[in-house]
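Give me structure tokens for this 558-residue protein.
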Amino acid sequence: MRLRVLARLVQIERVLVRHRLDDFVRATHLYRPLRLVFFISPWTWFQRDTGLSRGARLRLALEELGPIFVKFGQALSTRRDLLPGDIADELARLQDNVPPFPGAIARAMIERSYGGPFDERLRDFDETPLAAASIAQVHTAKLADGREVIVKVLRPGMKDLIELDLEVMYTLAGLAQRWWPPSRRLKPLEIVREYEKTILDELDLLREAANASQLRRNFAGSPLLYVPEIYWDHCRTDVLVMERIHGIQIGEIERLRELGTDFKRLAESGVEIFFTQVFVHNFFHADMHPGNIFVLAGDPANPRYAAVDFGIVGTLDLRDQRYLAENFLAVFNRDYRRVATLHVQSGWVPADTRVDEMESAIRTICEPIFDRPLKEIYFGAVLLRLFEALRRFDGQIQPQLLLLQKTLLNVEGLGRQLYPDLDIWQTASPVLRRWMRERMSARSVWLELRRGLPDALEIFKALPSLAKRTIEQAQDGRLLLPIDTRALDQLRASLARQSRRSDRIVIGAALVVAAVLWVGLRLRPSWFGALLGAAGLIVWIYAWLQGRSPQHPSRPIR
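Here you go.
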């Protein structure tokens, strides 16, 4: 374990203890080797009661620990059904109320990024941030032609801090995968790799601008969602400039109620937007916490969503997308055997899984949730029970679906706040059925064929010369077939490890036998027999531990 990773782990626990959250430290299995450090440390002995609630202490600790921990708190804040009210209220403040950095520093960073005078591009820049988030903060300004804009600026020093926390996450995931066998089903290293790609993408504001442009194009003219315009001439890797919208944050329920907003329509629109993004566009906003969602309530009877912060978006492999859609539809139709069959076909559970047993398990989980309003359905609990069922069948968590699961839980949290009686099945089913019909239509098939036609023609043109060259090489004995030797190398290494382990077992056994003979024959000195026995046991135990410790890939050290 690298020294700076160990120092960061110590810092994390020190922050938890300082904010009187040390119960988390004592309950964390992977931190147990470090707990002695805290029991003998002054910051544990001299804890003082700050007078703050547990929710406030948790929020302050997450803010102090940095962006990855803030984002964790943001995700938790949408699940009021899973959290005590006081903690949910405090974590909700993380959505856009993270302590800001000075506006003068933001101005200097923007000017340095532009490489020229600030006022040539932006005027009326307000150094007081409009909102501050975990990775960036936003200021208001105007373009030269008077259009109101939002200017988003990365926090200074973000990349170094995030890279360090990613190393910590890789270290913990590696420890979990090596020493806690149940975690291997969850694929902790793969999950961290997926999260690494997501969080590093957020550090490139040009990528976020491109995401916003794509989402705006997807919903052009839609009455469901409005996406602000991006002003590309003013965007850089660490600066994003986009149209300012004047909406009401989705969390301001009382204000929306005073305006007479149709909450049922708003909740249904949210579900429709989610399923449209996932299955029609295959490009979805994956950071839908309340701080990023606004309502344009000019017409309260037909409210329209507006989205900001496009740093995290998700897409699905077409195969996963189709299997997922068919799974949803099979659940809607209560066709649990189809759900079980799809899980086997997709490879999400082993091929030898008994479909009838899995069908029964899924029926037991899903049947109770039908014909109920959203307020009586807890997707968090349903997902946990599904994961438990999959573990019984040796199912594997799919890292590529984690963003989708997170977004679905966020949508549920918002829907529960807006309109608890929402029937999510009735709202989502038409979108999915329409998408499936369009995927199977003659027009869709023709478009796919036409899209692949140029590649097919290129292949046909290359076939004659390729065939001739292959035949000539075969006749001359020059035809070589590449073989991937990685599997052979892995097998060779495994056999070598096994051979070394067997040698150690034999040596250990020989030492123990020698010790027994030495003692039995009463040879002198007598302590030498004990030494032989101890050495044999040590070698034996080492060989046994080596056999129990699986070899796992780890993240390359930067």
